[in-house]
């Protein structure tokens, strides 16, 4: 059954949505590349000399470990996974700063931005409701 549904989906993509599918795949690759570049940029900005290709691929291990942490956003587990994966590569004195910077940029900043945008959306929605209520009374 799975194979049959996969074939139906692939036919649908081929007939109607191949441009959207390719655009989605491209933007997904771009997004993950940007996410992985955060650590490399952070390490380079601190002045740590390292094998950047190795650091790039070791992030896969961190993100894989994060999938098994049962907290929202893998909070706590992501930092621990990062520490254990990179403790042999990065200097001990800078590891905490790198972990904090990496996590703030890749998760907590986005989370905070989402909260701000949600509140702005609620305020806009509330003001629209007030305008509709005034219009309906007239």
Describe this structure in words.
With 138 residues, the protein is mostly helical. It is 84% helix and 0% strand. It contains 4 helices and no strands. Helix 1 crosses helix 2. The mean pLDDT is 90.
List the helices and strands and how they pair.
Blueprint: H1 2-46, H2 52-66, H3 77-86, H4 92-137
Helix pairs in contact: 1-2, 1-4, 2-3, 3-4
Indicate the mean pLDDT: 90
User: SSE order in H/E notation?
Assistant: HHHH
Instruction: Report the structural category.
Output: mainly alpha
Counted by DSSP, the helix tally is: 4
The portion of residues forming beta strands comes to under 5%
User: Roughly what percent helix?
Assistant: over 70%
Cα-to-Cα separation, first versus last residue:
59 Å
Shape: extended
Q: Main sheet?
A: none
Q: Give the low-confidence spans.
A: none
Q: What distinguishing features does this structure have?
A:
138 residues
Sum this structure up briefly.
The protein is mainly alpha-helical and 138 residues long. It is 84% helix and 0% strand. It is extended.
């Amino acid at each position: 059954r799975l194979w049959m549904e996969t074939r139906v989906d692939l036919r649908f993509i081929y007939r109607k949505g191949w441009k959207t599918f390719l655009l989605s795949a491209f933007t997904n690759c771009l997004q993950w590349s940007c996410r992985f570049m955060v650590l490399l940029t952070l390490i380079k900005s601190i002045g740590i000399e390292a094998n950047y290709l190795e650091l790039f691929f070791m992030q896969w291990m961190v993100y894989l470990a994060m999938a098994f942490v049962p907290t929202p956003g893998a909070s706590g587990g992501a930092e621990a996974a990062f520490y254990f994966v990179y403790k042999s590569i990065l200097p001990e004195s800078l590891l905490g700063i790198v972990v904090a910077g990496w996590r703030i940029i890749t998760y907590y900043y986005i989370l905070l931005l989402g909260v701000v945008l949600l509140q702005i959306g609620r305020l806009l929605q509330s003001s629209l409701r007030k305008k509709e209520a005034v219009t309906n009374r007239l």
